[in-house]
Design brief:
The chain has 341 residues and is of the alpha+beta class. It has one domain: 4-Layer Sandwich (Phosphatase 2c, domain 1), CATH 3.60.40. Helices cover 30% and strands 30% of the residues. The strands form three sheets. Strands 1, 2, 4, 5, 6, 7, 8, 14 and 15 form a nine-stranded mixed β-sheet that branches. It has a five-stranded antiparallel β-sheet with strand order 3-17-16-9-10. Strands 11-12-13 form a three-stranded antiparallel β-sheet, covered by helices on one side. Helix 1 (78-110) runs antiparallel to helix 2. The longest helix is centred in the first third of the chain and has 33 residues, at 78-110. The protein starts with 9 loop residues before the first strand and ends in a 5-residue tail after the last strand. It comes from Nelumbo nucifera (Sacred lotus).
Length: 341
């Protein structure tokens, strides 16, 4: 399935290793002299097909717009579902946002009195307006995306699905939406050096608010004996399927028992001190802390291979920390916000 792109003058590229797990869309109108400020890498683990997928869309919804997304599939058809969502969600989201913007413009045109007097106040409220529109677009797009998967008769999504962590950057406005246990973080400079801001919370059964919803819907939560630190979600009367997250696209067998596809959405206003954004699947976060990832990126000699350096470190740590376990798929997308000093 191809990428749906609403910007006519854009180019689509696969990762340099030929893998279609990472797709990069570059708006051809952008100045080619601008330094390359992104890095991405995906590596298959030892469990089977690489079920991770990622996208970096430069020029999304405008010249200064960026859409980043990382999707970690699971179950028999997880490798298919993660790519379907990766390919469909950006255009679906932008369609919803544009529809909301048209509606908002129509409302403001009907109430244009004292516009000059309200100019300063409107400017202060712009960030709130941007967030509100994107939030509504996200909620609508995720609902439609999940419905499309359910209606896909050629694909069994009953016990397969995918996480989704995405970021939309428009100027200094940052909107983050999270579904599952992939993660987004921000590296920012302070007087004391580099500081890490975790932009998302892992939506797992270990989170009290998530566990409460599962139990209210008669889902069960417990860990297996051979992995006591990993809580999973199970059917009421069957020790199956054992999902390690509480929100996901797909997984329809558990949707009546508290698993939902409603994303957690948040906003962040970027400053000149913010250095880079990172999105990665749990194959990275299961073995590396956010501080370790930030340190690798900050001291990387070559920005273009910085994401690969993180993945390489994660794979090495997997083999050391879990010598008897199969290495998970690892995917990293990094967006550098400032030129290297």
């Amino acid at each position: 399935m191809g990428i749906c792109v609403s910007t006519a003058s854009s180019e689509t590229h696969k990762a340099e290793d030929g893998s279609d797990n990472v797709v990069v869309i570059q708006n051809s109108l952008q100045n080619e002299e601008i330094p390359k400020l992104d890095s991405f890498h995906s590596q298959q683990g030892s469990k089977g097909p690489n079920q991770d997928a990622a996208i970096l869309f430069q020029g999304y919804g405008g010249e200064d717009g960026v859409f980043c997304g990382v999707f970690d599939g699971h179950g028999k058809n997880g490798h298919i579902i993660s790519k379907i969502v990766r390919n469909r969600l950006p255009s679906l989201l932008l369609d919803r946002k544009n529809a909301l913007s048209v509606l908002d413009t129509a409302v403001r045109d009907q109430d244009c009195g004292d516009q000059e007097d309200r100019l300063e106040s409107d400017s202060k409220l712009m960030s709130n307006k941007v967030f509100h529109e994107w939030k509504e677009a996200y909620l609508s797009a995720f609902k439609v995306m999940d419905k499309e998967l359910k209606l896909n008769e050629k694909l069994d999504c009953s016990t397969s699905g995918t996480t989704a962590v995405t970021i939309i950057k428009q100027g200094e406005d940052l909107v983050i939406a999270n579904l599952g246990d992939s993660r987004a973080m921000l590296g920012t400079l302070t007087e004391n050096g580099l500081m890490v801001v975790q932009l998302t919370t892992d939506l797992k059964p270990s989170l009290p608010s998530e566990a409460e919803r599962i139990k209210k819907n008669n889902g069960r939560i417990f860990a297996l004996r051979n992995e006591p630190d990993t809580l999973r979600v199970w059917l009421p009367n069957d020790n199956f399927p054992g999902l390690a997250m509480t929100r996901a696209f797909g997984d329809f067998q558990l949707k009546n028992y508290g698993i939902i596809s409603i994303p957690k959405i948040s906003y962040h206003r970027l400053t000149v001190n913010d250095q880079f954004l990172v999105l990665a699947t749990d194959g990275v976060w299961d073995v590396l802390s956010v501080k370790q990832v930030a340190s690798i990126l900050w001291f990387a000699e070559n920005r273009e291979t910085a994401a690969k350096a993180v993945v390489d470190a994660a794979v090495t740590k997997w083999r050391y920390k879990f010598p008897s376990s199969k290495v998970d798929d690892c995917t990293v997308v990094c967006l550098f916000l400032q030129e290297k000093r």
